[in-house]
From TrEMBL:
Short name of any one Pfam family annotated for the protein: RraA-like
InterPro entries to which the protein is assigned, alphabetical: RraA/RraA-like (IPR005493), RraA/RraA-like_sf (IPR036704)
Annotated protein name in UniProt: Putative 4-hydroxy-4-methyl-2-oxoglutarate aldolase
UniProt organism field: Mesorhizobium robiniae
Classification via CDD domains: RraA_family
Residues forming coiled coils: none
Listed cofactors: a divalent metal cation
Top-level lineage group: Bacteria
């Protein structure tokens, strides 16, 4: 199921989640390499403190996306090149930080998916407190442990495994509709059908 979502862009998924879930303000810092998709390993940490991210890295299983609720604080970096390299070496599918990173140049040359709010040189505290595998909020989006997390150039969305099969079917149907629209544009026969079909929402 997770592999199937790697074939689709986040806007297609977001449109079929009533356009409600979706992290705001997070962007990719890694070298573009397709769609990130995996299971959420969630972390809640004190703003500017990464002790519990270190602890979470010891729990990473292949295919996990480490999702960190750093409170959106951008004054200290929560991860950098070393921690993203550790996550990648342990088979993580990516890392999502509601906060800042550092070593942006090195991360930007690497295909390992890393999404964050900003970059800053200042390093983190390592005192705690924090929590692992609890519901978190990143960019206004609630993520629970084990949720499917998908990210690309447009941002990050997450959703429960329950209902993922129905969501996947809806996404595939929308992709087919949009492919037909693009074909009609290329053939100069587009007549605004998309806006009418979507209720004028685009």
């Amino acid at each position: 199921m997770i592999d199937a979502f790697r074939a689709f862009a986040t806007p297609l998924i977001s449109d079929n989640l009533a356009r409600v879930p979706g992290a705001i303000g997070l962007r990719p810092f890694h070298r573009a390499s397709g769609v990130m998709a995996g299971r959420a390993l969630t972390v809640r940490t004190r703003p500017g403190d990464n002790q519990f991210i270190h602890r979470a890295l010891d729990l990473v299983q292949p295919g996990d996306v480490v999702v960190v609720d750093g409170g959106g604080y951008e004054g200290r970096a929560l991860v950098g090149e070393i921690m993203t390299s550790v996550a990648a070496s342990r088979g993580a599918a990516g890392i999502v930080i509601d906060g800042a990173i550092r070593d942006a140049g090195a991360i930007g040359r690497n295909p390992f998916p890393c999404f964050a709010r900003s970059a800053i040189h200042l390093g983190p505290y390592k005192d705690g407190p924090g929590a692992i595998n609890v519901p978190v909020c990143v960019g206004g989006m609630v993520v629970s442990p084990g949720d499917i997390v998908v990210g690309d150039e447009d941002g990050v969305v997450a959703f429960p495994v329950d209902g993922a099969a129905a969501l996947l079917a809806a996404v595939r149907a929308q992709e087919a509709r949009e492919a037909e629209i693009m074909q009609s544009i290329r053939e100069n026969r587009y007549q605004g059908a998309y806006a009418r079909a979507a209720g004028g929402s685009h």
